[in-house]
Amino acid sequence: MKSLYQCDAAPRHFLLKGCVVLYDVDRLCAVRMRGGKHIAHVRTNIEITCVTASRDDRTLVMGCNDCSFKCYILVDVDIDDVKDVMPNIASRQLELMHSL
Question: How far is CA 98 from CA 80, 89, 90, in A?
Fold first, then answer.
């Protein structure tokens, strides 16, 4: 895992729906376990303090040291069709928004 980043310490990581999500101070990436292909790579301008996944196993929620958070939807375009995935994400469902 160290070779993915060229940094002094190994990044934190967790498994998620067929991939490994790695993050360190200001970078996050997702790597498919089968084949090792990079699915996502994000660089932030603020320090990442924690990352978790929502119940759909697609939405990554990243907490930062300035008390902000960012959400990213993880889609492997070689396996998933974006047009099929996006309407099923909870934050994209209009009915959910009306019930709040």
Answer: 28, 15, 12
Tokens found for residue 82: 């974006």
pTM: 0.70
Fold of 2-99: Thrombin, subunit H (2.40.10)
Domain boundaries, the chain: 2-99
Q: Spell out where 1-100 has E strands.
A: 12-16, 19-23, 27-32, 38-43, 48-53, 59-64, 69-73
DSSP state of 98: H
Which pLDDT score is estimated for 1?
43
Give pLDDT tens digits for 40-89: 999 999 999 999 888 877 888 999 999 999 988 888 888 888 888 887 77
Q: How many CB atoms lie within 10 A of CB 62?
A: 19
Q: Look-up: residue for tokens 């697609």?
A: 58
